[in-house]
Amino acid sequence: MKRHLVKKITCALAAAVMMIACAMPAFAREIDTTKAYLEINNAPEGTAMIEILVPAAHAGDSLCETQDFTVKKETSRYKTVQRYYNLTDKENQDIVIGKDSEIAQYNDDDGYFSICAHTDSVKEIKLYVSTYDDDESKTERKCLLYLQDSAKNGKPSVDIKELEKMFGKFKAAYIDEKGNILGVTEVFEVAYADEDYAFKADGNKLTLVMNNYAETVKSTLLVNFGFPVIIFIAVLVTVFIVALVLFILASQKDKEKMQDEEL
Q1: How many Å apart are CA 5 and CA 56, to the nearest integer?
Q2: What is the per-residue pLDDT across 41-73, written as a single tens digit (0 to 9) for each?
């Protein structure tokens, strides 16, 4: 009976520890470090997107000759039907920003130039535009920058973390679809948040949002689970040790009793 009790306690302890250990990976989620959103607020009139500017002095091996770059644009048109928006048309277009464009030729007094026109770090840029027939002010734009995610044509892989480490500082140029510059940010900062990587341009300021999900999870686990789990495991271990000691003592008594009966 006592042996069965110890076995049950042992199994319960093992199950509890396994349950906690296996639950930890559930908090993990993948964040694409080769993709960054290009968000725009308070932009000059006529802005189609932003182009990231980097200091030429830090370009290193990613530096290349001035080149064209392509923005893959997808336009979705919606029409109001009984208070709902229905997709009526979708158009895909490749916008080529030429190497002779203003953005490709840009090089300011601080030595910043276009990351797409002068480096091999960027794989592609996608621009999604949604228009609504009843209200032009509802036009929505979403732009994403994809970095080289695998070695291709001799171009090395790179992600946002490596990019931030390589260049340190960034600017953003507000441009139209022909590559004309409508404005350039001057203030830059790095912010950490539990969200996707993003370059956020707001008027004269550019913010690079770096994902800190791992740190957030660690803090959450420590506060919400760490101490309770430690206490719980400590209690289980104590119960197990006590049960084991009682079992050993009981076994010794049974052995002594059997020896007395034999005598």
Answers
A1: 71
A2: 999 999 999 999 999 999 988 899 999 999 999
